[in-house]
Design brief:
Blueprint: H1 14-25, H2 28-34, E1 39-43, E2 47-52, H3 55-64, H4 66-77, E3 82-87, H5 107-110, H6 147-158, E4 168-171, H7 178-192, E5 198-202, H8 203-215, H9 220-226, E6 231-235, H10 244-259, E7 263-268, H11 280-286, E8 290-293, H12 299-312, H13 319-328, H14 333-349, H15 356-365, H16 370-373, H17 379-390, H18 394-398, H19 404-420, H20 425-431, H21 437-451, H22 455-473
Parallel strand pairs: 2-3, 4-7, 4-8, 5-6, 6-7
Antiparallel strand pairs: 1-2
Helix pairs in contact: 1-4, 6-7, 12-13, 12-14, 13-15, 14-15, 17-19, 17-22, 19-21, 20-21
The structure holds adenosine-5'-diphosphate and magnesium ion.
C-alpha cells in the first residue's frame, strides 16, 4: 500500500459522522482526549484509515476503542472495513499534546508543548471531575445487595483515613452504583468538611493527566493535585494500566497517601485480585484495606429505586406497575432508570396516566421480554446441576454433612441460587434442608469474600455457573 496516507477520502464526511456518534457514546473528556484530533483519509467498504497525532494514539485506540470504532462505522455505513491507524505527517500546531513516547521519534521534543489545562481550579475541595449532584448518600437506596458497600462508604466519608478501610475498594458489574457511591463519599467530605482536599477522578483521567505532565516535562502540577489529596477517589481502576511508568506513578501516589494516613477509595469492575495487567505489588496494596462488592439488587430494592426515581420526575407509579417494571428489568440500575424514563415518556406521549398497559408497551419497545432474555431457573435445578458438577447427590448437597468440600459446594450453590433466581433468602434456606435465611446470607458473604481474593476459586465458581446456565438455554 504505497502512499496510502495521501489517498483522498472518497466518502468525505463519513468519519465526521462516526465521530458525532462516538461523541454521544462516551465521556466528553475521553472523546476530547482520544478522538477529537483524529481524521480519516480513506473510509470505504474495504479500508478505514484513521489518522492520529502520534503513535501512542495508535496503541491506545487499538487496545481500548477498536470495538467502538468498528461498531460505529458499521452503524453509520453498514460496512465492516479493515481498520488501520496512521500517524499524521504534520499535526497542526493546535493539535494538543503529542503523547508520543517512542524513542525513535523526536517530534515530541521538536514541537513546543502546548499548554496543558489546569485540572483543579478554585478551592482545593473542587473535584477533578464535576460531581453529579444526584449522587449523594441520601439518594442511594440501600438493600441487601449494596448494604455492605454503602456502610463502608459512609464510614470512610465520615472519617477519611481513620478507619481500617484504607484503601476502600468497591467492585461490581456495570450500572450498580460504584460511581454513585464514590461521588457520594466525595460529596459528603466536601459538605461536612471531613476532608480538606477531595480529589475525585476517573482512572483514565488520572492516567492521561500523568501523560500530559510527562509530556510537558513538568509533573509538579500533577503531583500537587494527586499527592496532596486528603482523600483520593479513583473510579474504574480497571482502565488504568499501560506502561510501567504509569504503574510506578500510581504506586508512588498510593504509598505517599497511605503513609500520611490519607484516604484512598477505588472502584473496579472486578475483584482486585483478578485485575489484568497490574503489577502484583499494586494488586496487593489494593487489598490492604477493605474490598467490598455490590450485587445485583433484589426485587424490593429495585421497586424502591423505581419509586424514588419516579418521585424525582414528579410522577407517582402505581404499585403493580412498579413491581412489573422491577420484575422485568433486573440487570442493573442504569437500565432500570432508562426503562422508567421511557415509561414516563410513553405516558406523556399517550396523554394517559402510567398504567400496566403502558408499562408492557415500554418493556416491549425496549426488547426486554424477560422470559426470552434470561430464562428462569429454579432452585432445585441449580441444586441438581451443582451436585452433578461435584459428583454428589442433591441430598448430600442440601443435607447436614459438615465435611469441608461438601460445605463449600453447598455455599457455592446457595450463592448461585441467590444470583440466578429471584427467590427470597427465606425460600432458599427452606430448600436447603430448612436452614435459616441468615445461613444463606453467611454463605453468600463467604463466597463473595473468597471470590475477591482467590482467582482459582473464581474460575471454579464461574465454571459451575456457566454449566448451570448452559443447561437453561439449551
Ligand atoms: P456504576 O458506576 O457501577 O456503573 P452508577 O453509579 O453509574 O453505576 O449507577 C448507575 C445509575 O444507577 C446511576 O444513575 C445511579 O444514581 C443509579 N443507582 C445505582 N445504585 C443506586 C441505588 N442504590 N439507589 C439509587 N440509585 C442508584
Ligand atoms: Mg461508574
Amino acid at each position: 500500500m504505497r502512499g496510502f496516507v495521501y489517498m483522498v477520502d472518497k466518502h468525505p464526511g463519513l468519519w465526521d459522522q462516526c465521530l458525532r456518534k462516538i461523541e454521544g457514546k462516551i465521556e466528553a473528556d475521553t472523546y476530547g482526549t482520544w478522538f477529537a484530533q483524529t481524521s480519516s483519509s480513506q473510509l470505504d467498504a474495504r479500508l478505514a484509515l484513521i489518522e492520529v497525532p502520534t503513535s501512542f494514539f495508535v496503541d491506545w485506540l487499538e487496545e481500548h476503542w477498536l470495538d467502538l470504532i468498528r461498531s460505529t462505522i458499521k452503524e453509520i455505513t453498514s460496512w465492516a472495513p479493515e481498520i488501520r491507524f496512521s500517524v499524521k505527517k504534520n499535526p497542526p500546531a493546535s493539535a494538543g499534546a503529542p503523547l508520543d513516547f517512542s524513542t525513535s521519534d523526536d517530534s515530541a521534543a521538536r514541537t513546543p508543548a502546548p499548554p496543558v489545562e489546569p485540572v483543579v481550579q478554585g478551592p482545593v475541595s473542587e473535584a477533578v471531575f464535576p460531581l453529579n449532584p444526584r449522587y449523594r448518600f441520601e439518594d442511594f437506596i440501600v438493600g441487601e445487595s449494596n448494604q455492605f458497600s454503602f456502610t463502608a462508604a459512609k464510614s470512610v466519608a465520615e472519617s477519611p483515613g481513620a478507619t481500617s478501610y484504607n484503601p476502600l475498594v468497591i467492585y461490581s458489574g456495570v450500572g450498580l452504583g460504584k460511581t454513585h457511591l464514590l461521588q457520594a463519599i466525595a460529596d459528603h467530605c466536601v459538605r461536612n468538611g471531613t476532608a480538606g482536599r477531595v480529589v475525585y477522578t476517573s482512572a483514565e483521567r488520572f492516567f492521561t493527566d500523568y501523560l500530559k505532565a510527562i509530556q510537558k516535562q513538568d509533573t509538579s502540577a500533577y503531583v500537587e493535585i494527586y499527592r496532596n489529596a486528603d482523600i483520593l477517589l479513583i473510579d474504574d481502576i480497571q482502565f488504568y494500566v499501560k506502561t510501567e511508568a504509569c504503574q510506578r506513578e500510581l504506586l508512588h501516589t498510593f504509598n505517599t497517601l497511605y503513609q500520611l494516613n490519607k484516604q484512598i477509595v477505588l472502584s473496579s469492575d472486578r475483584p482486585p485480585s483478578t485485575l489484568k495487567g497490574f503489577e502484583d505489588r499494586l494488586i496487593s496494596r489494593f487489598q490492604w484495606g477493605l474490598v467490598s462488592d455490590i450485587d445485583r439488587p433484589d426485587l424490593e430494592t429495585r421497586m424502591a429505586i423505581i419509586n424514588q426515581k419516579a418521585g424525582d420526575h414528579g410522577v407517582r407509579i402505581p404499585a403493580d406497575v412498579a413491581r412489573f417494571m422491577a420484575e422485568q428489568v433486573d440487570s442493573n440500575i442504569r437500565e432500570l432508570e432508562g426503562a422508567l424514563t421511557q415509561l414516563i415518556t410513553f405516558s406523556v406521549y399517550k396523554r394517559a396516566p402510567v398504567s400496566l398497559e403502558i408499562a408492557r408497551d415500554t418493556i416491549k419497545s425496549l426488547g426486554r421480554v424477560k422470559s426470552m432474555t434470561s430464562p428462569a431457573i429454579s432452585i432445585s435445578e441449580i441444586q441438581r446441576r451443582t451436585a452433578g458438577y461435584f459428583d454428589i447427590s442433591v441430598e448430600m448437597l442440601t443435607g447436614a454433612t459438615r465435611r469441608q468440600e461438601i460445605t463449600t459446594a453447598r455455599h457455592i450453590c446457595m450463592y448461585l441460587c441467590r444470583r440466578l433466581t429471584q427467590a427470597p433468602l427465606k425460600s432458599i434456606g427452606t430448600e436447603f434442608g430448612n436452614r435459616d435465611h441468615t445461613t444463606v446470607i453467611h454463605a453468600c458473604r463467604n463466597i463473595a469474600a473468597r471470590l475477591s481474593t482467590d482467582p482459582d476459586f473464581q474460575v471454579l465458581v464461574s465454571r459451575i455457573q456457566n454449566r448451570v446456565q448452559q443447561f437453561v438455554s439449551a
